[in-house]
Amino acid sequence: MDRRTACLHQADAFREKAIADPEQHDKWIDEAINWLERAMEAGRCAGITVEAGDTGDFRSWHAERQPMLS
User: Fold this and answer.
1) pLDDT (tens digit per residue) in 1-54
2) Which residues contact 57 (CB under 8 A, 6 or more apart)?
3) What is the DSSP letter of 66?
4) String of DSSP letters for 40-57
5) Calpha distance 50→53 (Å, rounded)
6) pTM recorded for the entire structure
7) How would you class 49 by CB atoms within 10 Å of its CB: exposed for 0-12, middle for 13-18, buried for 19 or more?
8) Is the CB of residue 45 less than 8 Å from the CB of residue 2?
9) What is the CA radius of gyration of the chain?
10) What DSSP character marks residue 65?
11) Separation of alpha carbons 56 and 61, rounded Å
C-alpha cells in the first residue's frame, strides 16, 4: 500500500470515529482532515530517477516545450 492510500485509510477511520463518538466529533474530524492533507501531499510527491547519459533526451524534450521569444 502506498503512502497516499494509507493516509486515506487513516482519514476514513477518523471519520468513522467522528460518526461513532458525537461528543468528540470535532476532534475526530480535525484528525481526518489532517490525514486527508497528508494524502494530498503524498499524491503530489513523485520520484524521478535519471541515469547518467539520459540528460540529452531531457534537454531536447525541455527545449521543445520552451516558448519562443520574439
Assistant:
1) 888 899 999 999 999 999 999 999 999 999 999 999 999 888 776 555 556 555
2) none
3) S
4) HHHHH-------TT-HHH
5) 8
6) 0.61
7) exposed
8) no
9) 21
10) T
11) 9
